[in-house]
Amino acid sequence: MPTYNLKINGKSQEFEASEDTPLLWALRDQLDMVGTKFGCGIGQCGACTVHVDGNAMRSCQMQVSQLDGKEITTIEGLSEDGSHPVQQAWKEIDVPQCGYCQAGQIMTASAFLDKNPNPSAQEIRTAMHGNICRCASYNRIEKAVGIAAKKQVAKVTTVETETKLA
Ligand code: FES
Ligand code: FES
After folding, report:
1. Phi/psi of residue 49, each to 5°?
2. In a shared domain, residues 99 and 73
3. Do 111 and 156 have their domain in common?
């Protein structure tokens, strides 16, 4: 079986897998990163969403052989301590019910806000549309994305101010 060395959450991760192994299963089975969830396995639910070069991608649809040189981020690497604005917003209004879909929701939301830091309600709804929640926590998800956008802007402004004062 070939050996792969992928950059995941800022670290090189070496593992053996057949070349058609989906990234999702390499994460979960080879690397013990089980925050990324299996939902449908056919690219339809978003539970397995991770970032690949900053874009929200479905890890069940990406083979490990396609990912050489890519920067992969999973829910475990979004922040060291749960301090990412999206994670904070999720906690603030208790978004999850069963929680199963939530890593994928958070990864989709965070990649979206990196590209669109000041979205409208409709843009949030459209961006999150492909992530299924069987507990139907959609209203709280959309609200939390809006809260996270405000937190993210506030964080950037604070860092800019601190940089100017330094
Ligand atoms: Fe990948 Fe559903 S498990 S999209
Ligand atoms: Fe249960 Fe979304 S919180 S599937």
Report:
1. -65, 135
2. no
3. yes
